[in-house]
């Protein structure tokens, strides 16, 4: 019964979405306030109905209602409650429902926080948002109904892929979707602006915080996925350039570019049509990712079980949403008025350079990801594009970007003085060179990879440039300390946000460089009592025992780790075999230090006695996760800026008027 | 058949990437390292998006053994790659070779960069021209707004 | 000129969409064989226990007559599905079928044939790491190769053979090669 309510709620939601997609749009073009006003209540109803459907499916999972096909295929009574709930989105149908729920949530947010938006813009944006909802609701109702019944119900379910029974991966999809769907806000407002033919600072002021929020979620989602791969796949890799990873990375690149170009729109009233294009592209790439993962066009380790009918449907959706938007763009964008002028060497110019490189980067990842498809479709044979390609083409593109990142924020708006900026950056340059030299000597010259010194120098250059910019803002050491502190207190939060986020990237680069360059590993058969030393850490295998988990059996190894004769830690990695479905997983044991992760994995028993063990030292990996967190923190800081608080300017104005009256 | 392949691939997916048993490894650490680096560039054919070093599919294991055997016998990296490509085609190379069929792949990114730089340059040139003396026409609304913005920024 | 620039995104996207449309009809997992029109790899595989001394499979055995070479293994589930059809094809007497027992204990391979029937003229054992199968460019079982009179590989079928595959694909190729 509850499942049927969920299904029915989705059908009602479709009806509401259809109304919301059409009437406010017509109302906006006719100036009919009542019709436009319909969008608000519709978005509330939408959220209620989709929420009911989501709750219904969650209920089916929590109560293990195996008469629902989706639950029977993906759940099991033995599963811990946490994974029963997260199992809702661990499959194609459920994850689509999550996607739609988040979409409805963002629609509701426009209604709740958008009281000060121009009514036309708001009505149109909500209508566009509803069009996307219509597409996805049709998709779920016609091809992927999560509420389908199974008669007779089986005694128990088939269980959830054990790889998904993990905190990192359980919450990876919601964050990722919050990011993807978050870009739908910028998209809807871009389409609304194209229909209105007007893009101004107010538009950018509204779009920026939403894009920033989406960017924060996406950054977290990608980091969670990467962290999961790091500890779950059992050898300390954290990025594979797999098509599905690329599918999340491309919108991140486009979204990052959008964040920066929206600054130019807001502050300088320029780069408007480019920003609109980026808003369409960022969401378009999110949709493209959905298509790639669910259609089977590209092979990937993570792909959902695929179905050609679904592929055709999402392709249709993609063509309608992205093709339609680009067509509208081709027609309307040329009439957007261009605003503020600026010279190539200026803050705007630097932001534009960021955009050029980010866009090229996203294009490169797109080309590499889709190339096997292109080659196959053109009968050029089957080719593979793997990590070596991306590393050798994408990474070099990012070098000039990071180089420019240090200088950009120091340039003044409109026309900057590059020579002056570079001389102010001489401290950073000296530090970077010193670090490069030190790194080179430390790794024993060409005994380590040649690019390691470069990566470190790049990170120090970025960090140095970021600190110089911050120090200049507060006139550190130029003014009395008290004045500097006072200035620091007055720094706008968005400025802090940039400083923090850019520093986070520097940390990230340091971690990525070190862990790729100097990872130490030792793979062997280890007997009880035997000691293996990696990077100065002595791992003694003291015990191996079988453990009976909630829904798995595990072999747990115990390593006593000492460093320089001192006790360091006890590591207990597991090799699990889940009962349903019967699949093995590895649970690495990791202890982090500031210099790196001590990482142990236990494998199978060897007939001659002993176990296969893999012991690693992954240098500076914690810096990488810290870098991601710092970037997210910077984003949050910027988001909390008063100027970004939605509607604040208007409210302030209203307050001023009220005071006058 | 497609369904079967999908099913199989889903089964492979289950396997955590714990490759290279110690029993497979070469005694000489330098050779083993070479074999590992080379294996990282060879695609596992049944899992389809992992290298043979990262997969514990049976075929990947067989290929790891054969790669190590050949390296142990003194084959060069190129010879080993040729051995595998002769049997499975360019598809096994995760680093696609530079040739006719991959020309667009390898040059595309640089083409993209060039195009976007030219576009940015054209943008500035056009704007620079637009900035040329505009006579004494009265300011349009948009220009007034722009002027306002400029003045505000100057503060 | 500027208008054209604004058209660029939609044009690029249209191109992409065409590729995607085509992509939905392609199978990215299907790998064409590199061995077509090349001689069968050098091999001399021992027979399975209990099948007679001279029933192994060597390259020379594939000369003189058009033949099928089928890759199977006792561990392979799809092979069980395929097996009755191989029996039928054997009964038609058009072409001899040879087997390669891939990645398998020869004892198990022989047992499996006892249980499910033995359509093969010759069967060579190719235990792990399956060198001969890798020489054939095999990616999974079952796979079936059509070899011509001169021992040249002419066709490879991936996945189970059934009567439809036989009638539509294999038989016409064999007829052509027998001319």
UniProtKB/TrEMBL annotation, chain A:
GO cellular component: plasma membrane
Family: Belongs to the CcmF/CycK/Ccl1/NrfE/CcsA family.
Segments forming domain Cytochrome c assembly protein: 89-295
Major localisation: membrane
Domain Cytochrome c-type biogenesis protein CcmF C-terminal: 315-642
Spans traversing the lipid bilayer: 6-26, 38-62, 96-114, 126-147, 175-195, 207-229, 249-265, 277-305, 311-331, 352-374, 394-413, 425-442, 448-468, 496-518, 620-639
UniProt-recorded name of the protein: C-type cytochrome biogenesis protein CcmF
Its biological purpose: Required for the biogenesis of c-type cytochromes. Possible subunit of a heme lyase.
Organism from which the protein derives: Magnetospirillum moscoviense
One GO term of the biological process aspect: cytochrome complex assembly
NCBIfam families (alphabetical): nrfE (TIGR00353), PRK10369.1 (NF007691)
Keyword annotations from UniProtKB, A to Z: Cell inner membrane, Cell membrane, Cytochrome c-type biogenesis, Membrane, Transmembrane, Transmembrane helix
Pfam families: CcmF_C, Cytochrom_C_asm
Compartment annotation: Cell inner membrane
Highest taxon in the source lineage: Bacteria
InterPro entries given in the database record: CcmF_C, Cyt_c_assembly, Cyt_c_biogenesis, Cyt_c_biogenesis_CcmF
Membrane topology classification: Multi-pass membrane protein
Any one GO molecular-function label of the UniProt entry: heme binding
Automatic annotation (TrEMBL), chain B:
GO CC annotations on file: plasma membrane
UniProt superkingdom: Bacteria
Pfam families according to UniProt: CcmH
One term of GO molecular function: metal ion binding
Domain CcmH/CycL/Ccl2/NrfF N-terminal: 8-151
Transmembrane segments: 103-124
Alphabetical UniProt keywords: Cytochrome c-type biogenesis, Heme, Iron, Membrane, Metal-binding, Signal, Transmembrane, Transmembrane helix
Annotated InterPro entries: C-type_cytochrome_biogenesis, CcmH/CycL/Ccl2/NrfF_N, CcmH/CycL/NrfF/Ccl2_sf
One example of a Gene Ontology biological process annotation: cytochrome complex assembly
Segment forming the signal sequence: 1-19
Function: Possible subunit of a heme lyase.
Protein family (similarity comment): Belongs to the CcmH/CycL/Ccl2/NrfF family.
Protein name, UniProt field: Cytochrome c-type biogenesis protein
TrEMBL record, chain C:
GO cellular component: outer membrane-bounded periplasmic space
Lineage of the organism: Bacteria, Pseudomonadati, Pseudomonadota, Alphaproteobacteria, Rhodospirillales
Keyword Disulfide bond in annotation: yes
GO biological process: cytochrome complex assembly
Protein name: Thiol:disulfide interchange protein
Main location: other
Keyword Disulfide bond carried by entry: yes
Domain annotation Thioredoxin: ranges: 34-179
Family the UniProt entry places it in: Belongs to the thioredoxin family. DsbE subfamily.
SUPFAM superfamilies for this protein: Thioredoxin-like
GO molecular function term, any single one: disulfide oxidoreductase activity
Record key words, sorted: Cytochrome c-type biogenesis, Disulfide bond, Redox-active center
Any single Pfam family the record assigns to this protein: Redoxin
NCBIfam families: dsbE
Compartments in which it is found: Cell envelope
């Amino acid at each position: 019964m509850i499942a049927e309510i969920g299904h029915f709620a989705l059908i009602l939601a479709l009806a509401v979405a259809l109304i919301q997609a059409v009437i406010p749009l017509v109302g906006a073009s006719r100036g009919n306030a009542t019709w436009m006003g319909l969008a608000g209540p519709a978005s509330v109803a939408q959220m209620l109905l989709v929420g009911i459907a989501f709750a219904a499916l969650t209920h089916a999972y929590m109560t293990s209602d195996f008469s629902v096909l989706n639950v029977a295929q993906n759940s099991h009574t033995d599963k811990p409650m946490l994974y029963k709930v997260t199992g809702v989105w661990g499959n194609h149908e459920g994850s689509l429902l999550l996607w739609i729920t988040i979409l409805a949530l963002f629609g509701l947010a426009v209604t709740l926080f958008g009281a000060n938006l121009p009514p036309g813009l708001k009505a149109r944006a909500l209508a566009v948002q509803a069009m996307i909802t219509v597409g996805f609701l049709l998709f779920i109702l016609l091809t992927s109904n999560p509420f389908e019944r199974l008669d007779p119900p089986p005694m128990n379910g088939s269980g959830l892929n054990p790889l998904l029974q993990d905190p990192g991966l359980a919450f990876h999809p919601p964050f990722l979707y919050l990011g993807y769907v978050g870009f739908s806000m910028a998209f809807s407002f871009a389409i609304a602006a194209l229909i209105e033919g007007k893009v101004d600072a107010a538009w950018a002021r509204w779009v920026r915080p939403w894009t920033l929020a989406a960017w924060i979620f996406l950054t977290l989602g990608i980091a969670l996925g990467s962290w999961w791969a790091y500890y779950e796949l059992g050898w300390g890799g954290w990025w594979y350039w797999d098509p599905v990873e690329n599918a999340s990375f491309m919108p991140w690149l486009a979204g990052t570019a959008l964040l920066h170009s929206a600054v130019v729109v807001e502050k300088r009233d320029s780069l408007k049509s480019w920003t609109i294009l980026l808003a369409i592209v960022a969401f378009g790439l999110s949709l493209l990712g959905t298509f790639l993962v669910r259609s089977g066009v590209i092979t990937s380790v993570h792909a959902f079980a695929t179905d050609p009918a679904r592929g055709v449907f999402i392709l249709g959706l993609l063509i309608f949403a992205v093709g339609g938007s680009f067509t509208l763009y081709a027609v309307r964008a040329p009439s957007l008025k261009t605003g503020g002028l600026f010279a190539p060497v200026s803050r705007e110019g630097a932001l534009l350079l960021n955009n050029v490189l980010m866009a090229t980067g996203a294009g490169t990842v797109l080309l590499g990801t889709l190339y096997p498809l292109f080659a196959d479709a053109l009968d050029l044979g089957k080719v593979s594009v793997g990590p070596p390609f991306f590393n050798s083409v994408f990474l070099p593109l990012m070098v000039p970007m990071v180089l420019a990142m240090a200088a950009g924020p120091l340039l003044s708006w409109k026309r900057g003085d590059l020579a002056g900026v570079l001389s102010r950056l001489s401290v950073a340059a000296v530090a970077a060179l010193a670090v490069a030299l030190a790194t080179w000597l430390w790794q024993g010259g060409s005994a380590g990879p040649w690019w390691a010194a470069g990566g470190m120098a790049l990170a120090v250059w970025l960090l140095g440039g970021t600190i110089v910019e911050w120090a200049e803002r507060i006139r550190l050491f130029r003014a009395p300390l008290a004045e500097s502190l006072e200035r620091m207190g007055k720094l706008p939060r968005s400025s802090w946000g940039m400083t923090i986020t850019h520093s986070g990237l520097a940390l990230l680069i340091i971690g990525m460089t070190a862990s790729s360059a100097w990872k130490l590993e030792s793979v062997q058969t280890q007997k009880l009592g035997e000691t293996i030393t990696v990077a100065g850490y002595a791992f003694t295998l003291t015990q191996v025992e079988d453990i009976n988990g909630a829904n798995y059996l595990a072999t747990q190894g115990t390593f006593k780790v000492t460093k320089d004769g001192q006790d360091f830690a006890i590591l207990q990695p597991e090799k699990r075999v889940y009962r349903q479905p019967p699949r093995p997983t590895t649970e690495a044991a990791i202890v982090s230090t500031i210099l790196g992760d001590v990482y142990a994995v236990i494998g199978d028993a060897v007939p001659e006695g002993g176990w296969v063990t893999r012991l690693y030292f992954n240098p500076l990996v914690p810096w990488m996760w810290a870098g991601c967190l710092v970037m997210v923190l910077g984003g949050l800081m910027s988001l909390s800026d008063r100027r970004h608080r939605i509607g604040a300017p208007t409210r302030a104005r209203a307050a001023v008027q009220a005071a006058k009256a | 058949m497609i369904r079967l392949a999908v099913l199989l691939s889903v089964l492979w997916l289950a396997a955590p990437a714990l490759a290279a048993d110690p029993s497979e490894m070469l005694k000489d650490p330098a050779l083993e390292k070479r074999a590992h680096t080379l294996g990282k560039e060879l695609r596992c054919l049944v899992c389809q998006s992992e290298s043979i070093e990262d997969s514990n599919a049976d075929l990947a294991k067989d290929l790891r053994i054969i790669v190590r055997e050949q390296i142990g016998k003194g084959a060069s990296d190129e010879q080993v790659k040729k051995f595998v490509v002769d049997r499975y085609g360019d598809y096994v190379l995760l680093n696609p070779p530079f040739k006719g069929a991959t020309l667009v792949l390898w040059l595309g990114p640089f083409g993209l960069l060039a195009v976007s730089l030219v576009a940015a340059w054209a943008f500035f040139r056009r704007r620079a021209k637009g900035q040329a003396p505009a006579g004494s026409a009265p300011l349009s609304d948009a220009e007034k707004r722009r002027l306002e913005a400029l003045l505000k920024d100057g503060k | 000129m500027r208008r054209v620039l604004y058209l660029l995104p939609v044009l690029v996207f249209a191109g992409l969409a065409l590729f995607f449309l085509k992509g939905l009809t392609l199978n990215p997992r299907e790998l064409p064989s590199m061995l077509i029109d090349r001689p069968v790899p050098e091999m001399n595989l021992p027979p399975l226990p209990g099948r007679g001394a001279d029933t192994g499979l060597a390259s020379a055995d594939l000369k003189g007559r058009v033949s099928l070479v089928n890759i199977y293994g006792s561990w392979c589930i799809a092979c069980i599905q395929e097996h009755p059809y191989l029996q039928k094809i054997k009964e038609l007497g058009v072409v001899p079928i040879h087997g390669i027992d891939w990645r398998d204990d020869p004892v198990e391979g022989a047992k499996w044939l006892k249980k499910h029937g033995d359509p093969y003229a010759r069967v060579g054992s190719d235990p792990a790491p399956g060198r001969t199968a890798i020489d054939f460019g095999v990616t999974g079982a079952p796979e079936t190769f059509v070899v011509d009179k001169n021992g040249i590989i002419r066709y490879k079928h991936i996945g189970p053979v059934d009567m439809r595959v036989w009638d539509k694909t294999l038989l016409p190729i064999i007829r052509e090669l027998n001319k």
